[in-house]
Amino acid sequence: MAGGAVVTGPVTTEVTMTCLQVVHAALRRGKPLIVLDPGNDAAIARAVAAACAATRTPLLNRHDAAAGTTGGPASPGAGIDLVRVVSQRSAILLPVGSPHLADLACADVAALAADLRRIGVDGDSLVWVPAGESLPGQALSALIRDGGAVGLSVLIGVTSPADMPELARSACAVLTLAPRHLCGKPSQFSLVVETPRRRELRLAHIVPARLPSALPARRPEMASARPHQKPALPSYEPATRSGGR
User: Fold this and answer.
1) Domains of the chain, with CATH numbers?
2) What is the pairing mode between strands 91-95 and 33-37?
3) Predicted TM-score of the model (pTM)
């Protein structure tokens, strides 16, 4: 993950669910989370909110993390103090639903990387881009390059093959989801990891899982997953794991 990871596949929901497993794992380990939210899928915001509630991670908004320390209201074009997000081990959604907002979000992350480099602190954070198509390939490559150097691991979900060549050259890991089989078996994927040495894993099986509910009464018991049931993004039930794991 340190060198950037791309998850790609033909079905947007499956790509997003796969990324959410990584997002939730990062939050469970107390890592700050920055989401570059395209804003055209409310389920992503609900999923992040549920994952933050389940892990008791503060979820900030743009006004909570306004630039500067005066505490005054932020102007619409104001940048975001992401150093505060990282230092508080919290999470934030940055909108990228328009070219202007996308430029602001990329500038915010670039400023964070510069600040971390200046003070010599490892960010130990995850930057998630749910829809890689919402940002230019050059911007995504810059996020991977600049973020990886200061501990900002970048996770990108993308369904458009046209955007893959440049990303594949930039990221150290590319996970490609195969089309869901009609027989109902778990989805398959191939994984290519570039460093520390190039490795390729073909047609491995995804273990279906669901994220825990926001406020579990007790530790959920493990049960057999049902691969033929496609989980919905907004719904989070006790985590399950395949018995053949």
Assistant:
1) 5-63+80-180 (3.40.50.300)
2) parallel
3) 0.76
